[in-house]
């Protein structure tokens, strides 16, 4: 197992873009974890003069917004919100996707047909409109935003899990488990799933990137949780000032872009490292 | 062929039924009664009116009857009434739909043009500086939120350079005849369509590059070259034609996302479409309108998806043969 891990790490490290992405992800996680230590007081509190440009004041390296709040502090706390929502939404999507995909492929027949139609249904609904509808009906809370994003992003995971399960379900080891009288659930999740998991994990990591983009759009529109600092909301708040202080929009946007970029690079790197067959294409 | 088309179109029906049922579930999921929220938000206080509404929405009946009634009314294209606009929901949506469709089509057009060109260029000049630059650009545009890109483009091209208007769809108070009006709309369309389209252009560029490289290695390409066809002829009429298939698949899968993306872009550029309507309705908790947009949006995606499938059928004879 250890040698496998080392082998995997070596293959991942050979991809320079993936390493850069990995470093960026670590940086964002570091900032998110260190936020309360770097900025011990409430980031949404007013600290100084409004609209100080970045790199002008040493106390506020990224400047202040229209109300005089420290942008650096809001970015740091925003990283927490963004990562939390991204990871939880991806987990939600992965759990739904694996359950649907595994059940469809394992049982086949009408179960498969029904579940695939169900998946198609969620692919048809315009996803952002659906997220906004859920948030509008349930209320602007961080939990609801997370669940809503998870609900619109699980379909690719379900399709991939189904495809993986299809190729595994008639293998000898599965037949052996059946012959031993193992229950369906145990075969599905104890025996087949571990073999199907690697590509699904890669996709889940890419779903985090998508979830971050969704969350930013929702809070940009002002429908995120009003009690937490969020990069999207920062852009939304700064929008009215683009004539005088466009940096208020630019800085959090760069943070979103770099985070999504880093997550995508890591996902691609994982994909290459886990599927060496595809790498030389 | 005709039977395939009819069968594909019939598949839309269960999908839409599913969306309607989901809608219904959402209404019942809401904390408190959505009916109360609806009536209080829309300031309906007259008891007689309330009773009438309760009857129209069937709130006094069992859930199964309510569901059946709801399905029946949506089937008759009755999506409810919006007191805010004082008009049936469907009428309001249909009035706003063309602007959104224009935005979506332009964004898709830009995405296809830029994405395919970039992808072909990168694959023809594989592993050169061009390929690297295009891949780098694709990675960045794939990660940038479209609304942010829109704002940054507004700052540069509208505020600083003054080349394009900051927002809206038409210059207020201008009367330039039909042709002038169309030009005016196009002028307003450039920034929002580009901001929305660049993300998809990045996706298409990546897919097109990979797909072209895949096709380049196939035997028939070597045959075409051996026949003495010029390189550009081989690239354009042999490789590209086959490499386009994954793009068509992707286009179908992404229609819903493009529609969702246009909601945000419309909010950024004050584009008067379904997105702005949805945003206002969410803000004012105008639920019949929100749910109406969801149903019609899904219908739009389902129909376009079927159309994409049929295009695919034309492009790839192998599928027809099955």
UniProtKB/TrEMBL annotation, chain A:
Coiled-coil ranges from the UniProt annotation: none
Topology in membrane: Multi-pass membrane protein
A Gene Ontology biological process term: transmembrane transport
Record's GO cellular component terms: plasma membrane
ABC transmembrane type-1 domain span: 79-267
Family named by the database record: Belongs to the binding-protein-dependent transport system permease family.
Signal peptide feature range: none
Keywords assigned by UniProt, alphabetized: Cell membrane, Membrane, Peptide transport, Protein transport, Transmembrane, Transmembrane helix, Transport
Regions crossing the membrane: 83-109, 121-138, 201-224, 245-266
Domain of life: Bacteria
Gene3D superfamilies the UniProt entry points to: MetI-like (1.10.3720.10)
Location of this chain's protein in the cell: Cell membrane
Name listed for the protein in its UniProt record: Peptide/nickel transport system permease protein
TrEMBL record, chain B:
Membrane topology type: Multi-pass membrane protein
Gene Ontology CC: one annotated term: plasma membrane
Transmembrane segments annotated in the record for this chain: 12-30, 101-121, 133-159, 189-207, 243-269, 289-313
UniProt keyword annotation of Cell membrane present: yes
Top-rank taxon, per record: Bacteria
Keywords: Cell membrane, Membrane, Transmembrane, Transmembrane helix, Transport
Predominant place of localization: membrane
GO biological process per UniProt: transmembrane transport
Gene3D superfamilies according to UniProt: MetI-like (1.10.3720.10)
Domain ABC transmembrane type-1 intervals: 97-312
InterPro entries assigned: BPD_transp_1_N, MetI-like, MetI-like_sf
Pfam families in the cross-refs: BPD_transp_1, BPD_transp_1_N
Compartment list: Cell membrane
Family per record: Belongs to the binding-protein-dependent transport system permease family.
PANTHER family: ABC TRANSPORTER PERMEASE PROTEIN, DIPEPTIDE TRANSPORT SYSTEM PERMEASE PROTEIN DPPB-RELATED
Official protein name in the record: Peptide/nickel transport system permease protein
């Amino acid at each position: 197992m250890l040698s496998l891990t080392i082998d995997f790490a070596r293959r991942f490290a050979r991809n320079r873009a993936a390493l850069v992405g990995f470093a960026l992800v670590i940086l964002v996680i570091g900032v998110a974890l260190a936020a309360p230590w770097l900025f011990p007081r409430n980031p949404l509190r007013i600290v100084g003069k409004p609209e100080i440009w970045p790199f002008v004041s040493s106390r506020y390296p990224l400047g202040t917004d229209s109300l005089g709040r420290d942008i650096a502090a809001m970015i740091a706390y925003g990283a927490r919100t963004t990562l939390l929502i991204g990871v939880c939404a991806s987990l939600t999507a992965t759990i739904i996707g694996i359950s649907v995909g595994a059940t469809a492929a394992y049982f086949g027949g009408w179960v498969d047909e029904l579940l695939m139609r169900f998946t198609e249904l969620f692919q048809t609904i315009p996803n952002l409109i659906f997220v906004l509808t859920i948030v509008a009906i349930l209320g602007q809370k961080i939990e609801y935003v997370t669940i809503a994003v998870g609900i619109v992003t699980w379909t690719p995971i379900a399709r991939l899990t189904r495809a993986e399960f299809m190729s595994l379900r008639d293998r000898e080891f599965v037949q052996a488990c059946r012959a031993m009288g193992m229950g369906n659930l145990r075969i599905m999740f104890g025996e087949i799933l571990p073999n199907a998991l690697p590509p699904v994990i890669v996709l889940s990591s890419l779903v985090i990137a998508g979830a971050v983009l969704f969350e930013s759009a929702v809070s940009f529109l002002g429908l995120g949780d009003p009690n937490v600092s969020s990069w999207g909301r920062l852009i939304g708040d700064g929008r009215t000032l683009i004539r005088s202080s466009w940096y208020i929009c630019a800085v959090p946007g760069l943070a979103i872009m770099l985070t999504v970029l880093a997550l995508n690079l890591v996902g691609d790197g994982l994909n290459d490292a886990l599927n060496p067959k595809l790498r030389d294409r | 062929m005709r039977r395939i088309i009819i069968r594909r179109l019939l598949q839309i029906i269960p999908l839409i039924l599913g969306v309607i049922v989901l809608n219904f579930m959402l209404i019942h999921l809401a904390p408190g009664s959505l009916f109360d929220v609806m009536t209080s938000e829309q300031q309906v206080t007259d008891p007689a009116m309330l009773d009438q509404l309760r009857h129209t929405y069937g709130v006094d009946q069992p859930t199964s009857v309510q569901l059946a009634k709801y399905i029946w009314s949506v089937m008759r294209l009755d999506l409810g009434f919006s007191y805010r606009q004082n008009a049936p929901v469907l009428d309001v949506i249909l009035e706003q739909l063309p602007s959104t469709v224009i935005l979506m089509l332009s964004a898709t057009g830009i995405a296809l043009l830029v994405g395919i060109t970039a992808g072909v260029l990168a694959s023809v000049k594989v592993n050169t500086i061009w390929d690297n630059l295009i891949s780098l650009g694709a990675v960045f545009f794939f990660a940038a939120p479209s609304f942010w890109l829109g704002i940054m483009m507004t700052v540069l091209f509208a505020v600083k350079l003054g080349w394009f208007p900051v927002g809206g769809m038409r210059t207020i108070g201008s009367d330039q005849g039909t042709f002038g009006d169309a030009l005016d709309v196009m002028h307003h369309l450039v920034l929002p369509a580009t901001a929305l389209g660049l993300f998809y252009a990045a996706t298409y560029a990546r897919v097109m590059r990979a797909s072209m490289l895949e096709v380049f290695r196939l035997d028939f390409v070597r045959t075409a070259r051996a026949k003495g066809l010029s390189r550009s002829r081989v690239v354009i009429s042999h490789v590209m034609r086959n490499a386009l298939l994954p793009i068509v698949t992707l286009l179908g899968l992404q229609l819903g996302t493009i529609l969702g993306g246009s909601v945000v872009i419309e909010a950024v550029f004050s584009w008067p479409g379904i997105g702005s309507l949805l945003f206002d309705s969410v803000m004012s908790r105008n639920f019949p309108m929100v749910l109406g947009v969801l149903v019609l949006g899904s219908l739009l995606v389902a129909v376009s998806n079927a159309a994409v499938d049929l295009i695919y059928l034309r492009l790839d004879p192998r599928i027809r043969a099955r």
